[in-house]
Amino acid sequence: MHEWHGIGLAATQIGRNEAFFVAQPPQGKFYAVFNPKITKTEDKPILMEEGCLSVPDQYGEVSRYEKLILEGQNQNGKPVKIKAWGLLAHIFQHETDHLSGTLYIDKTKKTYTLPTSERLQGEADSS
Q1: How far is residue 9's CA from residue 14's CA, in Å, rounded to a whole number?
Q2: Residue 58 — pLDDT band, cuts 50, 70, 90?
Q3: What is the pTM of this model?
Q4: What residues are annotated to the active site?
Q5: Which of 28, 43, 113, 115 is the most buried (most CB within 10 A)?
């Protein structure tokens, strides 16, 4: 995940038939969650750009809940309950989708070959 500059990776992405994922937002805490289940969502869904290690060099906007509660187990089998919002909530939804066989490209209306930050930089360079 880190080698390819990812911020999340589900077991299914590496050919494992187990229900777990790892995640680490930029400058954030590392999470390893087994048998994850989103048990509560709050607020309206918001659009946020996503990419995926399973779909290299493609990006798209996906609508996901801004706040949620995720329950599961840690690597020692102890129950965990995580309240997440913003980017972390988005990551958790993206990774739990992987575990059920859904990719972000199944939810986006359009994909791009450059992330927004690079597309905007290109527009600024040409003006």
Answers
A1: 8
A2: very high
A3: 0.87
A4: 95
A5: 115
